[in-house]
Amino acid sequence: MAVVEELIRTENNESLSFGNYKLSKKSKADNYEFGGDLYKVKTFQEITKLERNGMFVYESVPGTAVSQFHVTGSGVDFQVEGPKDAQITLELEDQAEYKVYVDGADAGTMKTNLGGKLSLSVELNEGTPVAVKIEKIG
Hints:
This protein is an all-beta fold. The chain has strands spanning 8-10, 16-18, 27-34, 37-43, 48-52, 55-61, 65-72, 75-81, 86-91, 97-102, 105-111, 117-122, 130-136.
């Protein structure tokens, strides 16, 4: 996997890829249509952020490249790559419990807050994508 030169794109399997952590200057792509929604991505070395219809979806510090980002009724799964470990925050269902998997390994159970935010740390090495899967429990 590599950075997304066009900042955001639709993949053949109806998932999204976005982010370019190699940019030294903040860049954004706005009003990207996907699945009837409008997406906006802001990305560079320090942060990558994705919004859907003006609402928060994904954020990583530092910036990352995300591929195969797929939201389901019960969670989300994607691959992430970056030059160093990243703190990732996702918007999910309010006060729900989720099972988290990182590179196929069980990373435990996490509960979202009132705003539906779930944060996790992912160990990253440039050039090596890491699979993240988050599934709602119950």
